[in-house]
Amino acid sequence: MEEKMQHPVVGSRRVDHLKEQDDSLTLNYGIEDTPDFVTTVVLGFQNVLTAFGGLVAVPLVIAGIAGFGVTDTAYMISAALLVSGIVSIIQSKGFGPKKFRVGAGIPTIMGTDFGFVGPANAVINTMGGGIAGYLGGTMMGALIEIGLSFFVKPLMKFFPPVVTGSVIALMGMTLMPVAFEWVGGGVGAANFGDPFNLIIASFVFLIVLGINHYGSKRIAPAAVLLGIVIGYLVCIPLGMVDFSQVAQAQWFAFPQLFKFGINFDLKFAIPFVAGYLVTIIETVGVMQTIGEVTQTKLSDEDIANGVRADGVGSFIGPALGSGPVATFSQNAGLIPLTRNASRSVAIAAGVILMLMSFFPKFATLVSIMPMPVLGGAGILMFGTVAGAGIKSLSRVKMNNRNLLIVSSAIGVGLGVAFRPEVVAGLPGILGGLFSSGISAGTIVALVLNILLKEEK
């Protein structure tokens, strides 16, 4: 694998003020760097593996809500992978003229989001729209997000370091329960919390930790991939992998436009409005997090372009039979852990996702990976996101005002994340905005930043 010069200033968008001689700031591959082909593919596949659970979980749930059989469920999963690959490339590369650019141009993985599952159930079953109503409603809702993306720039002045640092730290903290759900064996698993699952997760955790810290500069960036592969292989003779699902999967599948039909009725778009507002808030936070860990100075326009890519992806997805997409935060934890911020690697991951969508057998082979294997790697990935937020806050002067903002944002965010039923009764859009710990904490930080006067 090609070795790059390790210096904290690589590429035209690298943050110039990060001049501390701190090894934690050193990236093997900066955002503008392009590793050799083999390295790019290996690191790209690593991105795919760490995000795969989230990529397939939502289409599985939506298919269950719609009452799909095996064939239609498999198609929806393949469509989700295809759309994730396409939009990941758009977000990571960036396309279009300056004023109408789509994509932030930073290494990002996109995928379907759980925030739309509740509204989907309401449209499909309660409102009687079926899957066609769900797809039509999300497409119309995506137009709202695209329109609002042009108003993100004026709002960025309300995101000073005390707000962004709080959001980044909160993002890692609220993701940790997800990692431990994987550690336990996955929600709903018959053997959830079995000590053997904890042993497997601990084994993978130690492998990733050891390779990342003691591995050479050629091996360390692939620590997560190696840990997951080794853990997967160990689980096979232990009887934790069921290959019968692979045998049942098709060899090849081709995407179809509007396979499940489409219904553009405005009433089916209304339940998704709050979901798209939450997505905008969370995308801003993820963009700032990725900018922090890639040592890239993002302009307000870059972040607006990232939100716009979310909207465009959410318009493309339903047309191909998938759902709306959002910017995944898993990649934010993977970047500092592997010291790889290359945009080319994220684009390669997008290509791999697209290829996997055409070959369901291969996608199924990845999807049957035991959850504790992914959980062992997830602890480190999500922990590094929280660490990046804490590091960002360390550069903020902790006077009384700023301490109140940080404490309130993290307190409310974690409270909502751990006890979402407390805010479940909030009416309408308010309930949607506070349905996520990240969005709830962000809103609190934004409001307090406006209300509390700056100390002289």
How would you describe this structure to a colleague?
The protein is mostly helical. It has one domain. The protein is built from 19 helices and 2 strands. A two-stranded antiparallel sheet has the order 1-2. The longest helix has 30 residues. The radius of gyration is 21 Å and the shape is globular. One of its GO terms (cellular component) is plasma membrane.
Structure keywords:
Xan_ur_permease; 456 residues; transmembrane; disordered N terminus
Task: Write a compact overview of the structure shown.
The protein is mainly α and 456 residues long.
Q: What is the overall pLDDT average?
A: 80
Strand and helix order: HHEHHHHHHHHHHEHHHHHHH
| Terminal-residue CA separation | 52 Å
Q: How large is the radius of gyration?
A: 21 Å
List the total number of helices: 19
Write down how many β-strands occur, each being a DSSP E stretch of 2 or more residues. Answer: 2
Largest sheet: 2 strands, antiparallel
Q: Topology, pairings included?
A:
Elements: H1 37-66, H2 70-93, E1 110-112, H3 117-126, H4 130-148, H5 152-155, H6 161-184, H7 195-214, H8 223-235, H9 244-248, H10 266-269, H11 273-293, H12 300-320, E2 325-327, H13 330-338, H14 343-358, H15 360-367, H16 371-393, H17 400-418, H18 428-433, H19 437-451
Antiparallel strand pairs: 1-2
Helix pairs in contact: 1-2, 1-3, 1-14, 2-12, 2-14, 3-4, 4-11, 4-12, 6-11, 6-16, 6-17, 6-19, 7-8, 7-16, 8-16, 11-12, 11-13, 11-19, 13-16, 17-19
Protein name: Nucleobase:cation symporter-2, NCS2 family
Family: Belongs to the nucleobase:cation symporter-2 (NCS2) (TC 2.A.40) family.
GO cellular component, one term: plasma membrane
